[in-house]
Amino acid sequence: MPRPNAGAVRDGPPRSDRAPGKAHDLSETLAQATDLAVWRERRAWLAAARHLNAAGYAAAVPADLAPYLGRRGLVVWAAGDRRIA
Length: 85
Known about the structure:
The protein is α+β, with helices and mostly antiparallel strands. The protein has helices at 26-54, 66-70; strands at 59-62, 76-80. The protein has a two-stranded parallel sheet.
């Protein structure tokens, strides 16, 4: 005897955090992408500073990142502008 609902398709959990039919908010997506870019850039500067410190050199970093990297025990000096660093 076949089971009841044997061939029925079940709805699984939602695949995203937005409800079906909800309009996608582009500004929210851009804000999230900007946040990710900031963290990627910080990780890149952190890796570069660690590499230079391991070789015995202080790293020249943008002024706004110098306190962030200094708190992590790295020897850095603020170069002022990103293009200079």
